[in-house]
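Per your request, structure below.
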């Protein structure tokens, strides 16, 4: 527990008020933005959603949009054909089954096209304050470096281990902090080990620090 406290205290210093860096103004915009963020960066997603949500400002507009036009708009983020289809399918299901509201319902969210456990956790955490950890590439890397999970652990195992190790009421905030720590400090290449206050517990700090 001492190690967990050390990690939480340091992350609280670095990111006292962490937020999701995807831009959105409506609940379904967050859902679609997170779905689009698979295999790309939040920065790129924000670039395309800025155009997408201005051109198609309602769920009805997204449902009825031409697939070719959606593909053109989201082309910069990769896997655009599948993601463009997912946008239309998600809009259709929300309109038909939930009156256009993104519900606080894990089973429903995970049944949407292109929406898995990670996307669901991000959405439930941001929209409903659920204390859950979404394991993305940053959370996975940081957890392994800090010895919170093993090298070969899959995302479900990492989520289970983090959920067990940290206080439940901290998980939502911790998720954002681990993402930001991985994105800006404990980067995949060239992590900033020289200034990192967790290097005493880190398993993978760069040599000489
Ligand atoms: Fe990441 Fe380096 Fe800090 Fe380890 S010492 S947690 S690798 S930044």
């Amino acid at each position: 527990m001492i190690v967990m406290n050390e990690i939480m205290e340091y992350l609280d210093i670095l990111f006292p008020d962490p937020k999701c860096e995807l831009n959105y103004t409506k609940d379904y915009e967050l859902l679609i933005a997170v779905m689009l963020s698979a295999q790309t960066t939040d920065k790129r997603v924000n670039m395309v959603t800025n155009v997408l949500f201005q051109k198609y400002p309602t769920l009805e507009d997204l449902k009825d949009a031409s697939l070719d036009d959606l593909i053109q708009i989201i082309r910069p983020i990769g896997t655009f054909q599948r993601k463009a289809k997912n946008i239309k399918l998600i809009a259709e299901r929300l309109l038909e089954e939930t009156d256009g509201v993104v519900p606080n319902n894990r089973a429903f969210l995970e049944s949407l096209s292109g929406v898995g456990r990670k996307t669901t956790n991000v959405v439930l955490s941001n929209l409903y304050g659920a204390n859950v950890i979404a394991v993305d590439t940053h959370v996975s890397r940081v957890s392994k470096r800090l010895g919170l999970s093993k090298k070969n652990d899959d995302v479900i195992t990492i989520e289970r281990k983090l959920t067990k190790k940290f206080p439940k009421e901290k998980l939502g905030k911790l998720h954002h902090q681990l993402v930001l720590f991985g994105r800006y400090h404990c980067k995949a290449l060239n992590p900033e080990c020289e200034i990192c206050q967790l290097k005493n517990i880190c398993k993978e700090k760069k040599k000489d620090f």
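The mean pLDDT is 95.

Regards,
D.
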